[in-house]
């Protein structure tokens, strides 16, 4: 069945231009939660535009990626202070240091085991933290891989990008790691998200491509019309379409399961789109480093 869509893009100011909205996720309370990497704050915006924010300590902790947890709270990485943070929907904040010094935690996602899993870019490890703060770390078999984003797969494992190894990794709940090298050298994958049929979608910021890997390890790559677009983060909507930010091209992109690619320009030049999420309102939301959130809404006819 064909589907036609008309999209509109709206920008909503959430901070000053120097705060750096970066990661974004849909919370369990029907709001969008986002990080402000340069100001050390966690923001919350309802689809209706109600805005609140919460200061972290220290302000230089560098909150990056944020995700909903199995305990009804939001969990986030503190890239500069090498900790994992937690904030409840009523604003109570906690923080947990990591065993590895200067670990550089970046990506984070809920696992199927009731824990949060995260990447340690500098330490070359995958971490797991329980809801009561117990941390386990798993070393990767490739040195200098710079693991970046992470997401739960339909197979119960966690899948992650290995930015400097040009590979996709899979880690089971027992800590066993499988590495899938990408066909393209210099691909430098970053964002990753679960798609339909057990597939995982990811972006290749270095090659200007969107990738897809199946549960059997088969990899498909889709070159973007603008190979210099620097795709950064991905999210999958209820139709199975993969949405992604084009950091270098000031656009939001979409790719369908059959490989059709569309792009939607953002109103403000050089807005630096980073994190992306499908909101509770069905719209696609992106965090713009210039101090705003972008909302893409669609009128769809089946």
Automatic annotation (TrEMBL):
It is an enzyme of class 4 (lyase). The active site is at 274 (proton acceptor). GO terms for molecular function: lyase activity. The keyword Cell cycle does not apply. It holds the Pfam family Vgb_lyase. Its EC number is 4.2.99.-. It comes from the Bacteria. InterPro entries: Vgb (IPR051344), Vgb_bact (IPR011217), WD40/YVTN_repeat-like_dom_sf (IPR015943). Substrate binds at residue 232. Keywords: Antibiotic resistance, Lyase, Magnesium, Metal-binding. Signal peptide: none annotated. Its cofactor is Mg(2+). Mg(2+) binds at residues 272, 289. Inactivates the type B streptogramin antibiotics by linearizing the lactone ring at the ester linkage, generating a free phenylglycine carboxylate and converting the threonyl moiety into 2-amino-butenoic acid. Monomer. Belongs to the Vgb family. HAMAP family: VirginiamycinB_lyase. This is Virginiamycin B lyase. It comes from Streptosporangium brasiliense. The lineage of its organism: Bacteria, Bacillati, Actinomycetota, Actinomycetes, Streptosporangiales. The gene is vgb.
């Amino acid at each position: 069945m064909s589907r036609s869509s008309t999209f509109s893009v709206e920008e909503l100011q959430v901070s000053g231009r120097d705060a750096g909205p970066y990661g974004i996720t849909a919370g369990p309370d029907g709001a969008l939660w986002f990080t402000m990497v340069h100001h050390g704050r966690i923001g919350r915006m309802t689809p209706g535009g109600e805005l609140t924010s919460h200061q972290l300590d220290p302000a230089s902790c560098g909150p990056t990626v944020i995700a909903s947890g199995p305990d009804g709270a939001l969990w986030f990485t503190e890239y500069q202070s090498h900790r994992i943070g937690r904030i409840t929907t009523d604003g109570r904040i906690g923080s947990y240091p990591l065993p590895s010094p200067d670990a550089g935690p970046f990506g984070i996602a809920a696992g199927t085991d009731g824990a949060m899993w995260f990447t340690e870019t500098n330490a070359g490890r995958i971490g797991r933290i329980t809801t009561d703060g117990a941390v386990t770390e798993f070393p990767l078999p490739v040195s200098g891989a710079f693991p970046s984003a992470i997401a739960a797969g339909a197979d119960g494992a966690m899948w992650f990008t290995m930015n400097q190894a040009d590979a996709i990794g899979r880690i089971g709940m027992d800590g066993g790691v499988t590495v899938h090298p990408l066909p393209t050298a210099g691909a430098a994958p970053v964002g990753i998200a679960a798609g339909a049929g057990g597939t995982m979608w990811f972006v290749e910021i270095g090659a200007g491509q969107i990738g897809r890997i199946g549960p059997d390890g088969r990899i498909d790559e889709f070159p973007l019309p603008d190979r210099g677009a620097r795709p950064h983060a991905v999210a999958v909507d209820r139709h199975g379409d993969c949405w992604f930010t084009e950091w270098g091209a000031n656009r939001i992109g979409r790719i369908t399961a059959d490989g059709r690619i569309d792009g939607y320009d953002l109103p403000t030049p050089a807005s630096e789109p980073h994190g992306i999420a499908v909101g509770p309102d069905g719209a696609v939301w992106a965090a713009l480093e210039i101090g705003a959130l972008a909302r893409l809404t669609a009128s769809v006819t089946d």
